[in-house]
Amino acid sequence: MATSLALALTACGGGGDDDTAPPPSPRPTVTITPTAGAGAYRVAVDRGERVQVGTYLQASDGQGLVVLVGEDDKAQAVYRHSAGNTAGWLAAGHSPTAPITFANQTAWTPEATSLSQLAGVYRTLLANQDEAVLRLDASGTLSATGGDCQLSGRLSASTLPQAFEAEIRTQGCSGLPSQFTGVALIDADYAPAQLRLINTDANAVLELWLQGE
Questions:
Q1: Is beta strand 150-157 parallel, antiparallel or unpaired with respect to 163-171?
Q2: Which residues contact 135 (CB under 8 A, 6 or more apart)?
Q3: Can you name the residues that pair with 51 across neighbouring β-strands?
Q4: Domain positions in the chain
Q5: Could you read off the pLDDT of 55-88 as tens digits, one per residue?
Q6: Contact call for residues 205 and 77 (beta carbons, < 8 A)
Q7: Which superkingdom (predicted)?
Q8: Exposure check for the chain: N or C terminus, fewer CB within 10 A?
């Protein structure tokens, strides 16, 4: 079947000192060897002492996403490949950077779903059991409607199968960054959760399960 936000801090200086913050460190890249073309796949990766399973999504335009899960079925390692990128797969957060080859890869058929079909009110629990309640409208706008943790932002179309692009802002959410970007995945294996909200940026890997009311 889930973060530290990189903040560039500049010190106040004078006397002609350069107060420009240094550029962020480049994201590590990973070599991933897929064995099939565009589509949605269940995959397994041999990690030596254990086999890690997950999801591999490949779009026809070259975009790709690999989400490998831990024992709690939540994202533990996340890798994103953009269209036209030849540098490798970007690792989210502290994802391992050793080369990956799928030991097993099985295609599955996703069901087409639109934002208008997903519109409604959702709830999610954080690791500390705080609850966030949010509303998704047909245009993809997310707005907080209740709970100690306030989640808002936007979902938009993605070329990845079973996925929407996600831009999320948080307030009062223990353990979450103030903002993150990633994807919202539709995966029937995670029912009753209807959306898997996963970051693909430099924040530590996180996954939230959104369950409709």
A1: antiparallel
A2: 120, 121, 122, 142, 143, 145
A3: 46
A4: 29-108, 115-212
A5: 999 999 989 999 999 999 999 999 999 887 766 8
A6: yes
A7: Bacteria
A8: C
Question: Which residues are paired to 141 by β-bridges?
Answer: 154
Tokens for 160?
A: 């990845």
- Contact (CB, 8 A) for 135 and 124: no
- With contact defined as beta carbons under 8 Å apart, do 92 and 78 qualify? yes
Strands 32-33 and 100-108: parallel
**Beta carbons within 8 Å of 13's beta carbon, 6+ residues apart:** 19
DSSP code at position 41: E
User: Which residue from 66, 97, 95 is spatially nearest to 81, judged by alpha carbons?
Assistant: 66
Q: What angle do CA 77, 93, 23 make, to 5 degrees?
A: 150
Q: How far is CA 213 from each of CA 59, 121, 129, 140, 170, rounded to the nearest angstrom?
A: 31, 6, 18, 17, 21
9-30 pLDDT per residue, tens: 233 344 444 455 555 556 678 8
In eight-state DSSP terms, residue 43 is E
Asked if 156 and 183 count as a contact pair (C-beta separation under 8 A), the reply is: no
Do 74 and 1 touch, CB atoms closer than 8 A?
Answer: yes
Q: Specify the pTM.
A: 0.84
Residues forming beta bridges with residue 210, ordered by sequence position: 195
Report the DSSP beta bridge partners of residue 69: 75
Tokens 């996600």: give the residue.
166
